[in-house]
């Protein structure tokens, strides 16, 4: 199987509780390689643009407020089947439904403050990577 890249965000609830390293360890243990990484404080415009697909959802305002409440760590993860592998390591959106050993089971606080974002398909992965990274920031 070919190498694939996916986009990840370590969300404000996790950076605030100093869980960045523990979450990165989960990615690496799953065979995902971090080929780009930066800590940023998203602007409201950036967060609204990133989550534009959810703008009609009732939780959109709450989600944007949360995503700009603290810094986040945006990353590109590379590996075989990286998109599915990352979704598996993340666990279900709602930590109450997440499997044992997943990031959201161990660390997430709620369905909204759920510690990580990960792309859900090749098209969104490509778009999301481009939204935050230029080609020269990704070192495979
Ligand atoms: P995903 O992050 O597992 O792909 P999505 O359904 O795409 O889940 O939702 C995007 C993000 O929106 C979630 O990770 C979570 O932070 C937030 N979210 C989803 N559902 C709710 C909700 O019911 N209340 C508050 N926030 C939510």
TrEMBL record:
It is found in: Cytoplasm. It comes from the Bacteria. GO terms for biological process: CTP biosynthetic process; GTP biosynthetic process; UTP biosynthetic process. InterPro entries: NDK-like_dom, NDK-like_dom_sf, Nucleoside_diP_kinase, Nucleoside_diP_kinase_AS. CDD domains: NDPk_I (cd04413). Gene3D superfamilies: Nucleoside diphosphate kinase-like domain. Its EC number is 2.7.4.6. One of its GO terms (molecular function) is ATP binding. ATP binds at residues 11, 59, 87, 93, 104, 114. It catalyses: a 2'-deoxyribonucleoside 5'-diphosphate + ATP = a 2'-deoxyribonucleoside 5'-triphosphate + ADP; a ribonucleoside 5'-diphosphate + ATP = a ribonucleoside 5'-triphosphate + ADP. One of its GO terms (cellular component) is cytoplasm. The keyword Magnesium applies. Pfam families: NDK. The active site is at 117 (pros-phosphohistidine intermediate). The keyword tRNA-binding does not apply. Homotetramer. Belongs to the NDK family. NCBIfam families: PRK00668.1. This is Nucleoside diphosphate kinase. It comes from Maritalea mobilis. The lineage of its organism: Bacteria, Pseudomonadati, Pseudomonadota, Alphaproteobacteria, Hyphomicrobiales.
């Amino acid at each position: 199987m070919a190498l694939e890249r996916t986009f990840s965000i370590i969300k404000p609830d996790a950076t605030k509780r100093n869980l960045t390293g523990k979450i990165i360890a989960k990615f690496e243990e799953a065979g995902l390689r971090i080929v780009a990484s930066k800590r940023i404080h998203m602007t409201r415009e950036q967060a609204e643009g990133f989550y534009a697909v959810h703008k009609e959802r009732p939780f959109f305002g709450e989600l944007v407020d949360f995503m700009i409440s603290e810094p986040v760590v945006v990353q590109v993860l590379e590996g075989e089947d990286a998109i599915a592998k990352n979704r598996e390591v993340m666990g279900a959106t709602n930590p109450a439904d997440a499997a044992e050993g997943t990031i959201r089971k161990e660390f997430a606080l709620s369905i909204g403050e759920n510690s990580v974002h990960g792309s859900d398909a090749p098209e969104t992965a490509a778009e999301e990577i481009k939204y935050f990274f230029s080609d020269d920031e990704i070192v495979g």
